[in-house]
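Lab meeting tomorrow. Look over both lines:
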Amino acid sequence: MRFTTDGLGVRQNLWGRTMAAAVAAIMGVTLLTTPGTSTAAEYVAFADPLVNSFDPFDMTLRNQAPVAAPDTLTRRLLDERLELRTLTPSTNAAEMGPIIRTATVERGDTIIDLLVRNGVAQEDAYALVDSMRKVFNPRSLKVGQEVTLTFPRQRAGGGSGPVTSFQMAIDAERQIRIERSGLQTSFTAVEVRKELNRQLALASGEIRSSLYEAAAAADLPVSMVSELIKPFSYDVDFQRDIQPGDRFEVLYERMVDEQGRAIRNGDVLAATLVVGGRSLTLYRFDDDWFDPNGKSVRKALLQTPIEGARLTSGFGARRHPLLGYTKMHKGVDFGAPTGTPIMAAGDGVVEKADWFSSYGKYVRIRHNGTYSTAYAHMSRINVRAGQKVKQGQVIGAVGTTGRSTGPHLHYEVLVNNKQVNPKSIKLPVGRTLAAAELKKFRQTVAQVEKQVASLRGASATLASTTTATPGRSTE
């Protein structure tokens, strides 16, 4: 029985040195032998099921047909993974490693385009994408995303074999990995998530022009500012109450990877806002916000159903900017750019969502048997009549439809179907914690205060944008 090389004309009996080469091939290692000349013959094998499932004692490659020839694809892959070839003694073994290609998604690319352009056979490209759909929608591909492809090296200077793996980061936390399955044109896809660690962070600052600017100066993410505004909106009118010199302090979570890099933000755990000398502290507990006494801050209606807007006209008699005479203004106006999201002031059912006379695009929500709210001059409506909505849900966007001089939200509060001044009504409050819940809440508060104190002492830079640390309410 003999093992025949390809193109060398070297035939050696498998007893002796060649026996060692055959054993080495089965074990998945590389062995060099010198058949009496300065040229070395290298047996190249990989420790994988494709190679190990074939015994070199039962078949010869290339020049002699085996008793039971494998199919074309199997034969091709065998030739690429287990081959006898000529090398000079100076050849670097690293040159026999896999070929790795990195490609970037360009404008107008589909995933098929990218794969074929980078050397993946069309049949493999379609099979790979079909597998990908189980974990990722290929239509969600974004310009600039990077893809890594791995191919087996066919021969020195001879190109690559069929693609064996595909990797692509979906975002900072998730990655897709796709591997060829067995010998055929089929692939297995999995989504891999990074292991993240929870880290606490404390941000504080003094408001000089706006809360958003002060938060940015304190490295507090914009998303956290939006989350912070919502629970305070029940008691603070961010368009009228916030003044220069007011302060804030926020304890929040950051999720970091093994290198300590921030991947995403977690929840806001506690926050203090000092407004006009009045200190308000809120704590997250049981998916709600509570004051230090364990009373939920949630009320029937938000003070302001829009973020980052300015009050341009209050409730009451005024000279109408278009009609030119004094007319009762039965709501309040908030100036904001077209497209700014508008939120439902409270839970309820949409009574009307359509064009309504001089109001333009208009939504009215019934919250209970007494209270309703209305939103006018919208550029877009996201809800329909009869739909249930939750407090804070985006129902549309600011516009200037109907009788309007510019983009703004006209907002009305109705009590028993009559418009009233939103600032004049007393709204029902949320739940108060019972004894058992209150005990757990107080334990949470104690832990949070300990964490805040620790973070304050750990970094002197926390007060870089403020002259004093906000006091925390204990009322």
